[in-house]
Amino acid sequence: MKRIVIAAPHSGSGKTTLTLGIMDALKRRSLRVAPFKVGPDFIDPGYHRLVTGTTSANLDGWMCGLGFVRDSFAHNGAGADIAVIEGVMGLFDGIDGVSEAGSTAEIAKALAAPVLLVVDARSQARSAAALVHGFASFDPEVKIAGVIFNNVASANHERILREALGTSSPEIALVGCLPRDPELAIPSRHLGLMTAEENPLSGAFLQHLGEVIDRHLDLDLILRIAGERVSLIPTPALPLKGRESRLKVAAIVQGTTAQETIVEETIVQGVATPAAHDAGQDVGRVRIAVARDAAFCFVYEDNLRLLRERGAELCSFSPLADAVLPDGIAGIYLPGGYPELFAGTLAANAPLKAAIRSAIEADLPVYAECGGFIYLTQGVAVGEVTHPLVGIFPVETRMLARRKALGYREVELLAESVIGGKGTLARGHEFHYSEMAEMPEGVERLYRVSKKGQTLGREGYRYRNCLASYVHLHFGGSPEIADNFVRHCREYKTRSSF
Question: What is the DSSP string of 182-240?
């Protein structure tokens, strides 16, 4: 599969708009595009799906480990002609200042993918070439193969940029120069762009974007940069923590006349065994309801894939529109989103709130994160109005004018729960502009949460068989989370059938 990473020196350079335009242009050439997003962001993948019609998966080396990244890339890219991978922040920005962990550069290297660097040329000319030269030389293992200059002011500005890049970095192709165009701005709010569900991009916007891409970018050059087709063999999904184990890894080496299989013994950090979910498949599938609508649209697609692979039959429902839960379910997954934007509608849907309360009181396994957690509290205060919600957790949530939390999180489970036993380790991300009142001491706290080795305290609240947290966990780093949740749902189904 051909592959290309679209990166930038910093956020706000135009990565998302350029990524959407390139995806759309490739699709209009009847190419099958596999979209991906580096990092923990939920919003950009929604736009990728809107443009390509294909699910966009997150690739995050810090949350998931590179073994799972390659596995996700191979699985979600199967059958595609080209993978278009949108980067996160600046090309080398990650979890800290001394490593590449969590960065776009890490993913580009792991997938042997060339990089298109989107440079905002506003208020600079020859200096833009110096910037490109610095990025290209920072890590020689990251191949910056092409540059797109964005926000170019005039024909003379473009001429200077072309001359400067051609002189200083002749080995890097200039893919195009895009003029400043306020009509291509995508509306945003405090956590980034508006979601694709709220702002579905009009036909006029996409048509204009397509015209700009066709006029100013060399799509044939992008396809050449993306390289010849190569086969990527899925690697085992490895947990990020645990005892070092020896794993025999089979690698396929592409030869000129035949494929040669090489088996070697390597040291890896932790090994995920597929036996648990293989065994689970034998005892029948189990239905799990997943909240999916404009209020609850933040979920890692690979989390859902891992649940399916372990025997879950996922059925979507809308807390905004549905009065009842899906029939025959043995568990509920309440992902994140923006429930505060739809608080009035959620509060007015009394029948569904009652159904969820009854299900939790009956010990149905429920896992909720961030927006899903907020939905399970007594209510959310937006301005001067408090909207009553499900009421499982005896606190209210209020929205703030300033960000409350943002960043990667490590979680250690302190007791058995619906997602794992004591000592289970997982990684995720937290971002929100809300805060809750202090949770009563009588409510169990199952998570020990840390950030870069610094303990942040205890979180992860449990009531009966319901676990809720502000942290969005990515199951890729600890696939046993999916095993355990499906197992608990299956056990509930067995108990309730008697």
Answer: GGGPPPEETTEEPPTTT----HHHHHHHHHHHHHHB-HHHHHHHT-S----PPPP---S
Q: Hey, what domains does the chain have and what are their CATH numbers? A: 2-225 (3.40.50.300), 238-271 (no CATH), 275-496 (3.40.50.880)
CB 49 within 8 A of CB 88: no
Nearest by Cα to 227 from 93, 113, 74: 113
Catalytic residues: 370
Tell me which H or E stretch contains 155.
helix 155-168
pLDDT tens, residue by residue, 381-427: 998 899 999 999 999 999 887 777 778 999 999 999 999 999 999 99
Q: How far, in Å, CA of 407 to CA of 399, rounded? A: 18
pTM beyond 0.70: yes
* CA–CA separation, 229 and 286 (whole Å): 38
Half-sphere exposure of 39 (CA within 13 A, CB side): 24
What does the alpha-carbon distance between residue 371 and residue 188 come to, in Å, rounded to a whole number? 19
β-pairing, 377-382 with 405-413?
unpaired
Between CA 195 and CA 298 the distance in angstroms is 9
pLDDT digits (tens, 9 = 90+) for 207-244: 889 899 999 999 999 999 998 544 444 444 444 543 23
How many Cβ atoms sit within 10 Å of the Cβ of residue 254? 10
- Residue 40 vs residues 87, 103, 139, 395, 431: alpha-carbon distances, Å: 11, 11, 23, 28, 10
**What would the two tokens of residue 176 be?**
């195009």
Nearest to 430 by CA among 416, 417, 447: 447
